[in-house]
Amino acid sequence: MNTPALSLIKSDLPEKWQEILADLITDPKELLDFLELEEAANPYSPVACTQFPVKVPRPFAERMEKGNWHDPLLRQVWPDLAEEVTDPLRSEDPLQESDFNDKPGLLHKYHGRVLLTVAPHCAIHCRYCFRRHFDYAANTPGRARWRETLDYIAQDTTIEEVILSGGDPLAAPDGYLRWLLNELDAIDHVRTLRIHTRLPIVIPQRITAELRDILNSLRCQVVVVLHCNHHAELDDRVFEVFSALAEDGHLLLNQSVLLKGVNDNAASLIALNKALFSQRVLPYYLHLPDAVTGTGHFDVSEVRGKQLIDELRSQLPGYLVPTLVREEPGKSSKTRLA
């Protein structure tokens, strides 16, 4: 497939994605200064910052509304004091992923597909993250240890799909991704390579011509699952990379997490799904939040989730209505709720 020239991926970009990734906002006070907000109105939690440091890419921060404590993008990254609230019904591993982590960097929970934790870090720390306590130290193998995992996939002919996750797999450098993707692509029974990523949204400069060439060289079908929760996360630069990936023939899907105070209203979800569809991205899942320690302030009930899906169905064609799901440990698939 040809790689069309796009202004976003020309070599004369003022900032490379690696430079943006190396210059994240990591101090809550810097974020407050940038947004012209007073800390006294909503103090941050030093405890939460220690447990799960603040990480916000500057292109993402620039889409936030200054002076607005209720901005839906800010709410996703602000280390609220509510993170210190303890709840016996929440845990650091609510999905019990450690039970499915026999090989380094691999989770095998569902029939026919496995998940690889390709990178131990993300470009952004979403405060509701279900892997904020994940043991990345034990799941970031070098090439030698990846061999054990690759052999596991090669020996199990029921595995037809490999999901690249993390962290964020696109936070890994191109050379590393090229090697790993080519190794997976060489396994005959693997038909699909699915990439779960937030990078094209929070740092759209990541979708370079080199990365596109890597993806376009693969035999396997490439599916890119984006993670966008609110239409305010989208701008023209993000749309350009969506268009580029779609023109390359990759299937683009979006999954959102239903978050209190962010997108728990029909108007936001409708606007998001319409905006995504305008760039050939289809809604996939709408997740209820996982019961992770420190994230209870984002919780939305199943009843409310179903109400929202009913509202979307009344106003959108069926292909723009995501499936409402919850993930439950030990189940053979995600639990579909609506």
How would you describe the overall organization of this protein?
The chain is an alpha/beta fold. It folds into 2 domains: 7-84, no CATH class; 97-336, Aldolase class I (TIM Barrel, Alpha-Beta Barrel), CATH 3.20.20. It has helices at 17-21, 28-35, 46-51, 58-61, 72-77, 143-155, 174-185, 199-202, 209-216, 236-247, 266-277, 302-315, and strands at 106-110, 113-119, 161-166, 192-197, 221-227, 251-257, 282-287, 323-326, 335-336. It has a 9-stranded mixed β-sheet. Strand 1 and strand 2 form a beta hairpin. Mean pLDDT is 89; it is low at 1-14.
Distinctive features:
single chain; 338 residues; alpha/beta; TIM Barrel; 2 domains; nine-stranded mixed sheet; 9 strands; globular
